[in-house]
Amino acid sequence: MTIDQRTMGVPYEKFDTEVWKYELNQIAGPTNLMVPYGGEILHVGTQDDQIMVWVEVVPGGRKVERRFQVVGTGDTIGKQESYNYIGTVNVGSLVWHVFEDTPEEWR
Questions:
Q1: Where do the domains of the chain lie?
Q2: Residue 2: its pLDDT value, please?
Q3: What is the CA radius of gyration of the chain?
Q4: Which residues, 6 or more positions from 19, have their beta carbon under 8 angstroms from its beta carbon?
Q5: pLDDT at 16
Q6: Helices (H), the chain
Q7: Are 57 and 35 in contact (CB under 8 A)?
């Protein structure tokens, strides 16, 4: 995604950005999040044994739905062409892998 796409044609550096944190489901299937358009994933990690994703956003922007899937090692991911790998985290003795299900127009 280019900077112009993230900000609807306005140069990204003209906006103040913030880092927002979102919690991801570990077991209950995909997590659908409403994130300001063009939010850039910075990091996936854990906080208090919960899987989190940190995203740089332009606050006040139009929100779009983004879908994340957390899978354990050896579990089925789904259609690989639609998933973008984000990162791997450890929660206790378990290892989780985080993917974003990207819409076709983003591929």
A1: 3-106
A2: 44
A3: 14
A4: 42, 54, 55, 56, 57
A5: 86
A6: 3-6
A7: yes
Q: What is the SS3 assignment for 63?
A: strand
**pLDDT tens-place string over residues 16-38:** 899 999 999 988 788 999 999 88
Q: Do 3 and 28 form a contact (C-beta atoms < 8 A)?
A: no
* Length in residues, the chain: 107
Q: What is the DSSP letter of 62?
A: P
Distance separating alpha carbons of residues 6 and 37, to the nearest angstrom: 6
CB 99 within 8 A of CB 71: yes
Lowest mean pLDDT among 30-34, 40-44, 76-80: 76-80
The one-letter amino acid at 85: Y
Report, as an integer, the average pLDDT of 73-91.
Answer: 86
Q: What is the pTM (predicted TM-score) of this model?
A: 0.80
